[in-house]
Write the structure tokens for this entry.
Amino acid sequence: MMWERVADRICDFIRKKVELANADGVVVGVSGGVDSATVAFLSVRALGSDRVFATIMPEIGVTTEEDVEDAKLVCETLGIEYRYVEINPLLESFSRTFGESDSLAFANVKPRVRMIINYYYANRLNRLVAGTGNKSELKVGYFTKYGDGGVDFLPIGDLYKTEVFELAKYLGVPERIISKKPSARLWKGQTDEDEMGISYQKLDAILKGIEAGMEKVEMVEKLGVSAEEVEKVISMVEKSRHKRELPPIAPVRGLIDV
């Protein structure tokens, strides 16, 4: 069965990363969404429930009660220890210091605050932070640099979003989580597809077309997408390239006398 093989390979990957780091396990930020639920299920399958620690980090007033309940459901279903940490006090402190709270720059503070909390627990517990990014969002840069992108490894980073849904079903992630409209909850009412301006079905079709070396005209003819959508995705991939690379280093070694 394909998804069994996929799950087994990811679990081997998780075990090896933890062993190589001489870590005691992983920390996973569990949001109530399908990506983090899938990573939590895979981590427990790979390491056992006692080696997986979860954080639930809502922003009261933005994070829905449904998300909090679903995050707790994942942790309780898997039998993993978790900490519930409301991020509002940290955001309020930041807002008081800089005098604003409604820009995109401020919205990106939220995943960065959550990254700090995850690494706080990872440092305390000698664990690695397991990221929850999928291939679709990584490819187009739909993540915050040094926020939800600030992790030690990415178990589902080679799975497109539509494939994550399929793996989640195989793993037994609750259907109410799988069927929920994906949202990073950067602000009230925000959804991922609305913010990106394209559905995951079309996004994944185009990304797979790019990966297969298809020309733009061929994608329009064969994938049921428009030329504008293809151009949009290609532009997103190119503009976000810096997010997928290590910070560049200026080469000066040849100029220095040894």
About this structure: Strands lie at 26-29, 52-56, 81-84, 128-129. The chain has a mean pLDDT of 95.
